[in-house]
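**User:** Everyone, produce a chain:

**Assistant:**
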Amino acid sequence: MAAAGVCRSSAREDLEKVSDRCSRLCPDLCDRASSSSWGLKVAMVLLHVTFVGVIFLFDANLIRKTREEPWFTAVYLVVFVATLVQYFLTSGSSPGYVIDAMRAGNGSNTTYMKSPILKQSNSRNENIISSSTQNQLERQSSYSTSFWSKLVMDLYPPGSAIRNWTCTYCNIIQPPRAKHCHDCDKCVLQFDHHCVWLGTCIGQGNHCRFWWYIFEETILCVWTVVLYITFLHSEIVKACYLALTNQTTYEMVRRRRILYLRGIPEKVHPFSRGISKNLYTFCCPRGSRYTLEAIPIMEELEERARPYTCIDIISCRCC
């Protein structure tokens, strides 16, 4: 039993050491908020790749245009990559937190926040801080608070009370245009909004980058939508033309290679029964699904190839 307890304790210590090393090497992966933020970034990248990849996968005209005019696709891909790069730059940038401005506003606070002078004793379960060091930290903290208070209150009209501009969550005096973000749990300078797609606040530090990202994303979305509309329009027109003339896609694309269509004039569709009957058959199919169609005789095909006259138009020959 004692040996098992020793083994468990040693294994627990090893796991703690591994977790400490992982947290030091990859702090973002150990933080839940950072992990969810990275999950959002991966989802946004997959969303962009999916929408762009589908149009290149199914649009044959776009592939043909890419081979004929490669600069068109090159410019589009440059916009695509630039948008993703701007997305990562914006989402990874700091909006400008009040606490960071407070640290940068006085050198003593910066020293206190980054490298506090702590005297640790090698006791078993606790760290002991000497009273002199504790007093020094308290003096530095009070000096920093008073310095920031004076700096911020000078920005407000005379007679303003400190308690009116103190954040109830951070307990920090907010300068003008600052606001506490409940998602980030920090006060942000020139708070604009919290963008859920970027996973960060938009403030003084990244407001310009945010608008550049919006500009590039808008160009990419509009360009992609135009490509989709062009593709769907061509497919719809193709489908309507096939329904009006009673053709299949294979017969339209491979007309010259199909034996039973060789020798028939280009504008003559041998299986067409007129626009009205073709549409009726296409929209309201009836009868057996195994209907077999014969190729019309040459005299009938030559009659269909005859140019239209005024009498033919009045009599609705095409219908």
